[in-house]
Amino acid sequence: MTRPLPFTAPALLAPMEGVTEPCFRDLVLERNDSSVLGGAFTEFARVTAVALPRRTLRAHLGPRRHAAPVGLQLMGANVAAVAESARRAEELGAPLVDLNFGCPAKGAIRGCAGSALLDEPRKVEELVAACVRAVARVPISAKIRAGGEDDARLEQLARAVENGGASLLTVHCRTRKEAYRDTADWERLRRAVRAVSIPVCGNGGVRCHADLARLRAETGCTYVMVGRAALGDPWIFGGRTVERAEAARFLLAYAELLTAHHGASARMVSGRIKQLLHYWTAGDLCAGSGAAWRALDEVRLLERVREAAGVACDAAAG
Ligand SMILES: Cc1cc2nc3c(=O)[nH]c(=O)nc-3n(C[C@H](O)[C@H](O)[C@H](O)COP(=O)(O)O)c2cc1C
After folding, report:
1. How confident is the model at residue 262 (pLDDT cuts 50, 70, 90)?
2. pTM for this structure?
3. Looking at ligand 1, which atom is closest to the CA of residue 44?
4. Atom 10 in ligand 1: which residue has the minimum CA distance?
């Protein structure tokens, strides 16, 4: 029997390694009412031979709670270790545990985890079922890609997730082979919706606010998950157009949180900001000169962001 999902609205922020740690997530959740952003996910927490220690799970969940829930994502292939990690995550207050079957990184594949499991639907079902048994109340969800080399097994994979007892199936509509290519085939999402009776969350290729409704209307997905477009415009969920200064204040707040909570060095902070600038569209901040912003050194970059935010540099330094 599936368990009720905790989301407050159909649009969700995707799990993104190196990005959706608590600082970035909190800023996005703060800026979007729970009536437009229904929930978010941690970046994947990698499980190897033994269950993750509670302190690692706590760090992924972060100290703050918002009206919209944050699901904890696990990635691993060791059934007992992943299931015990799910149990601990529930104990620590995770409102949902998500399993990653989509990561195409070499490290994941070498460990036979993430998207490596797309070639083994039985193992997908086994992992989902073990986690469903391990937790007492919270829903288990699974995030798959449309397939490994091709999409021929999409329905089989979707059913494996459903048969394992998951309460939600998220489908990133690209295959492992397609990695992060520009085009995203939403017909695959429609196929997944037809294959299962649990709710489906569609993911892949959402570029603007209007795409959120369009994806659901065209595919029948109940939920829609936004990845990179939310890195470029954290306000995409509500569709509000922000001014340049407000956009810059987001980046500034991100820099401050990273420094305060992670003791991040100036170099690390500027690396994270540059990662966002790679996608950034909000407030037309870099207006065609994103590459030039990314070429700045860490001091100049923060100065530029402060200028755009309308924060005096001497005040910020003092
Ligand atoms: C930087 C980055 C990190 C990612 N890390 C994760 C992750 O930790 N777990 C996961 O399931 N997917 C991860 N993904 C995939 C996204 O969740 C999403 O499926 C993908 O970006 C497609 O959605 P989009 O077209 O809206 O970007 C990552 C994607 C990016 C760009």
Report:
1. confident
2. 0.97
3. 8
4. 15
